[in-house]
Amino acid sequence: MLIRIENGSPTGHPVDDYNFRTLFPSVSFPRYLTPADVEPFEFGLYEFSQIPNDPERYEKLVEGTPTQAENGIYYQKWLKVAMTDEERAAADAAQSRDIRLQRNGRLIESDWTQIADSGVDATTWHAYRQSLRDLPSQPGFPWEVSWPEPPSA
What we know:
By secondary structure, this protein is α+β, with helices and mostly antiparallel strands.
């Protein structure tokens, strides 16, 4: 991949070798491009990096300005930045929705225990199901949830 260099800084979106060569149809480039081959055309070699998967709860990952290594290749850079208040509220709402969906699934899976002739101790299952319904009132909800253990069937 290649990226345009303007005033010494990478700009825009990366392009592949084919598109780069198409931009300069009258130039014969070597099969494997080097930084020295593309710098006169205001381009630099570019490599994507893996997106980190460890932002903290209220952080997000944004793409930073690529950095040039000693070998002349520009590497994609990721930055961890704090979420805005609106983004935090949206993250809390999404997490709350996910936990409630899981809770609702567990309630549905245990619906059969509430039938009179199910053959289980209805009182313990009722207490379990009530604990599931009370999850949103736990301290730390929706990020820190202590799931109740279902009774033995």
